[in-house]
Design brief:
The chain is α+β, with helices and mostly antiparallel strands and 537 residues long. The protein contains 20 helices and 16 strands. Strands 11, 12, 13, 14, 15 and 16 form a six-stranded mixed β-sheet that branches. Strands 1-5-4-3-2 form a five-stranded mixed β-sheet, sandwiched between helices.
Length: 537
């Protein structure tokens, strides 16, 4: 049984969270060393925020976030107060002079600079996430818990082919010996996804529920394939995925313990992957948000992202079919954004994309041609044609921004174009702002009217009130007439009445409302009110 003990001990060993490993994980894009006391192998025990109104009591190994701290004198005072800690973080640019360097060497506290494009809440969350995982490897070592290595090790221990899957039953890793299983397992590995029919069968029979509710392995007898033993991969109450073994009989107690231990280390690995991916994605989203705002920090953020700073079009893409499961919906949005980033990156090396809220934004550099917006629309259409079968989405395209100062306008254009598509109730469509700007203006006018609690007035108000009191459809009659450019026969057909009946209704509505249909200004006012307030109010 020595093999089981060795494997278990190896899997439960957690490397120390050192300052060096945290910096390596986050990368210099987030944190950079402004002044170092020498080595960076100091153990990090926690994250603390500086408050000038409270007494500073920093425990040994703590990282102090110096919110609002600037200037060499202030930094030196804080380094002295934080000499028990491992590091002090201040916003860049960091004022480093001989006094600061001397104080860093004296106290042994590393001075770190945080990029201006990142927020304090972001870096606090990232650092706490990294420390919580406890899964940082020592410098120069490769991660000991590679998922494929784990799958193969577990295959040897259980004497059964293994797959490691996420919550959507996508295969993250698999062991060898899959040919010893059944056709269903082989199809799963080849497609890197459990077949839909198999997922449906397991779901209908309640096996997923049992796996997610049970803290240990679950034996699943199957009629047309090998039995399975599965265990949920958890982080606290959160289900991260599952491990599946194709077996011929139930596992022994020793092998069940090996599977339980494997689930713990797989959880650590998945959390580590997610933290790393979330770190990059959050940073990219924050940097791109800064670029899209077009403020004083846009140039620095663009430089860190490596995006162009001139002749840019902003694309705003959003999935049209959000799923009920929040986690699955977020995963779909992120995969959609990753695909968009890959698409625009292949077109131009200085393009970038990131998920901001529920919208995936892309900044696309354009060559001077005079038809930049049209070309950006074609790029968006090409992207949707590629991902359409998997992602049902709309994309709004903003006007060309000559430089970073105009990017905020292009982003607003893209947002408004996207909103027009949503208001139409369509999906799989692309709209350039120049093509939908009037519809966008009407939507903004509707927002203004709603914000100011405006209501219909004049002839249109009288029509609506009469319809409400008498159960008539005179407002609909007016709408059909205006939509048909005054063609009575076409309007009558639209509301399914005889043309003479329609003429009678038309006379009634003019009598009741006082609307002069011969006046183009009056017709325009009525049409705008119908667009802004609707045909029922």
């Amino acid at each position: 049984m020595s093999g089981f003990v060795h494997y278990r001990e190896e899997m439960t060993t957690r490397p120390r969270a050192s300052l060096r490993r945290i910096l390596d994980d986050l990368g210099s894009t987030v944190l950079d060393v402004a002044a170092s006391p020498g080595g960076l192998d100091t153990e990090v025990t926690g994250v603390h925020i500086y408050d000038p109104l409270d007494e500073l009591m920093l425990p040994s190994g703590g990282i102090l976030l110096g919110v609002g701290v600037e200037g060499a004198e202030h930094i030196c005072d804080l380094l002295e107060a934080a000499k028990a800690g491992s590091g002090l973080v201040v916003k860049q640019p960091v004022a480093v002079d001989e006094r600061v360097r001397a104080k860093v060497l004296e106290t042994g506290v590393a001075l770190l600079g945080l990029t201006r494009a990142a927020s304090w809440s972001q870096v606090a969350a990232l650092l706490r996430s990294l420390l919580a995982e406890g899964d940082l490897t020592e410098a120069g070592q490769s991660p000991p818990d590679d998922l494929f290595s784990l799958a193969n090790a577990l295959c040897a221990l259980l004497d059964a082919p293994i797959t490691i899957e996420d919550r959507s039953s996508r295969v993250l890793a698999f062991s060898g010996r899959q040919d010893e299983a059944d056709p269903g397992r082989i199809a799963t590995v080849l497609g890197r996804q459990v077949p839909e029919s198999y997922q449906r069968m397991l779901d209908e029979q309640g096996w997923f529920r049992k796996i997610y509710q049970n803290p240990g392995p679950v034996y699943i007898p199957l009629t047309e394939s090998l039995p399975r033993v599965a265990i949920a991969v958890r982080s606290g109450d959160e289900i991260l995925g599952s491990i599946w073994a194709a077996v011929r009989e139930p596992l022994s107690k020793q092998r069940e313990w090996a599977l339980i231990d494997a689930a713990k280390i797989v959880a650590l690995h998945l959390l580590r992957q997610r933290v790393g991916a979330d770190t990059r994605r959050r940073l990219q989203a924050d940097l791109l948000s800064t670029v899209l705002e077009g403020g004083k920090d846009a140039a620095e953020a663009a430089g860190r992202l490596g995006v162009a700073s001139e002749r840019l079009c902003v694309l705003a893409a959003q999935l049209a079919d959000d799923q009920i499961d929040a986690a699955q919906s977020e995963s779909s949005r992120q995969r959609f954004c990753d695909a968009l980033a890959l698409h625009v990156g292949a077109i131009h090396p200085k393009a970038a994309a990131a998920l901001v809220g529920s919208v995936a934004y892309a900044v696309l550099p354009m060559h001077a041609s005079g038809e930049e917006e049209t070309r950006a629309v074609r790029v968006a259409q090409s992207f949707l044609s590629r991902v359409g079968p998997r992602h049902n989405a709309n994309i709004g395209v903003g006007r060309l921004a000559a430089d970073l100062g105009e990017v905020a306008r292009s982003r607003a254009d893209a947002d408004r174009s996207l909103r027009v598509l949503r208001s139409r109730g369509v999906s799989g469509q692309v709209a350039g702002y120049s093509d939908v700007h009037f519809e966008a203006l009407l939507l903004r006018l509707g927002d203004l009217a709603a914000a100011e609690e405006q209501t219909p007035t004049g002839p249109y108000q009288r029509l609506l009130r009469y319809d409400a009191e008498h159960g008539t459809e005179l407002a609909a009659t007016l709408g059909a007439y205006l939509d048909s450019f005054g063609d009575v026969n076409a309007a009558a057909a639209a509301v399914h009445v005889h043309s003479n009946t329609f003429r009678y209704r038309l006379r009634r509505l003019t009598e009741i409302s006082g609307l002069d249909l011969a006046d183009p200004e009056a017709r325009l006012a009525a049409m705008l009110m119908m667009r802004i307030f609707g045909r029922r109010h």
